[in-house]
Write the C-alpha cells for this entry.
Amino acid sequence: MGRKRAIITGITGQDGSYLAELLLDHGYDVHGILRPMAVDGVLANIAHLAGRLVCHYAAIEDYAAVTDIIAAVAPDECYHLAAQTFIGADFTNEFATIQTNATGTHHILAALRSHAPACRMFFAGSSEMFGSITESPQTEETPFRPRTVYGVSKVTGYYLMRHYREAYKFFACCGILYNHESPRRGKQFVTRKITSSAVRIKAGLETELRLGNLDALRDWGHAQDFVRAMWLMLQQPNPDDYILATGVAHSVRDFAIQAFEHTGLDWQDYVVSDPQFYRPAEAQPLIGSSQKARKQLGWIPQYDFTALVSEMVDHDREELQYELSHSRTDL
C-alpha cells in the first residue's frame, strides 16, 4: 500500500499548518488548497514546510476549480478547515460568510462524492453553532441556536455533512471546535491582540490595550491539541461528530491577566475596556463537554490555559525582538 494522500483546505491557518505537520510526521503526502490571491504574509505558517507540501490554488466557492483539484489528487482524507472565521467580519460581509462556509463546504462534498467517494472527510464546525445555549456544558446532543451568521453557516455545513453521511454513506465527520489558539493565530483575533500588545507595552512601544467585554467567557484550548483530534476522527471505523473543548471557561480578563503577568506587568495599568469593541450580539458563555471524544478517540488535551498563554507571549516576544534587531540593522 502506498502513502496516504491528504488534502487540507485552509492549510495556511493555525489549524491547517499544525495539521500539515502532524500528517507529514505520519508519512502522508500532503496537499493544500490556498486562495488564488494568497500573499507571502498569509503563507508564513507553512513557510517552514516548503518542499514538503503540494499547494493548489483555488477559491472553494469555485466548484469547477475545486473539482479539478479533487480529481487530480484523489485524496484518502480531506480536512475542510477553510472558512470565513473572524466573527467581527460577520456583520459587514454576511453574504461572503455564507458563500464561503456553507456553499464552499457543499462544493467539497460534491467533488469528493464524484471523484474520491472512498475519501474520509473532516469538517471544522464551531461552538458558535450553539449560540443561545440551553444547557452548560454543551454536548453533541445540545440543540443548535446560532446567534451569528458565522454560526448559521457552520450549522449549514454540519447538516450537509450529516446529509452526505446518511444519504450517500459518505465517511463524513464534524468536529465542533471551541475556541482554540496558538502562536500562529492571526493578530486580528483578541488573543493575539492581547499577547502581542503585552510584549509591545513591555518594550515601551505602546502604552495601552483597548479591549471589548472583559467578562466575556471562552473555553480556550490549543490548536495543536485540536488537530490531533481531527486526525483521530478519520482513523475510526465509523464516522461520527465530536465536541472538542477543554471544559474550562476563562474570561478575556483572565487571558489579559495571564499575558501581562508573564511579561512582568500589572494588566490593570494598561488594559482599557472600550464599548466600541463589544460584539453587536455578544455570545453567551460556551463551555463544551468533550467526554465523547475523550472516551471514543482517547483524546486528552496536553495544554492547559497557563501554558497556552505563556507560549503565545513567548512567541510574540521573540518575534518582536527579531523585528527590532532587523530594523536596527536596516538603519
Q: What stands out?
A: The chain has two domains: 5-181+220-244, 190-218+249-285+304-330. The first helix runs from residue 14 to 25. The radius of gyration is 20 Å.
